[in-house]
Trans-2,3-enoyl-CoA reductase-like
Amino acid sequence: MHQRQKPSTPEHRSDLAANGAALSMPHNDSRSLLNFSQFVLSAGQIKPSPALKHSKITYFEVEILDMQSKKQICIVDKVPPASTILDVKHKFHKACPQWYPSRVGLQLERNGPFLKDSINIQSLAVSSIITLYFTDLGQQVGWTTFFLTEYTGPLLIYLLFYIRLSTIYDQVESRKNFRHPVVHLACFCHCLHYIRHLLETLFVHKFSEGHTPLKNMIKGCVFYWGFTSWIAYYINHPWYTPP
């Protein structure tokens, strides 16, 4: 006779479960280890995308108004914060070619001082829109040209009187009269004075601002050239006698 198997008791079932769990644990561990290794290998092959750097650059808009009428002349847009007044003048010259940068005078307030070319535009900004007033400074010349013209004139003019041109003095009188040594000494001192000024202009002096109105050069030339002509005429005159 076959003996009927007894139904498993709770203790027996718990032992079977424990044994089954013990058998399944190594299988689960190996599967998880395999998955982890595959993840590591796949992660090593993927190149991380570089982080995007979003640099926020605030641009300014410079509104340029006429100082007299307060009418808008133009708007210079997309001005970087590191720009200077000189950069704004160059952009303004592109919009209005008749006014080159050295001729443009910009003011923060009406009847205020002219802004220097080296001033940073960001230091003037209260908001993203900057209002500047424009003044036409007139035709400009460089400071080097200004002084070279001012000092070369007296040097040449005095020499023209010193050689006693026939168009200035009577040629007959010029040949008769003997020149006193002081006349030669005066010519030497005068030429030495202006040659020194010319050399200083070329090799010594440095000018902070590059230009000045043309009318200033005309005023300086009228004074220097006129005064030189006046004293040279009498010192080099055939009838001149020293005191």
Notes: The chain is about 50% helix and 15% strand. The first helix runs from residue 10 to 45. Residues 142-236 form one domain.
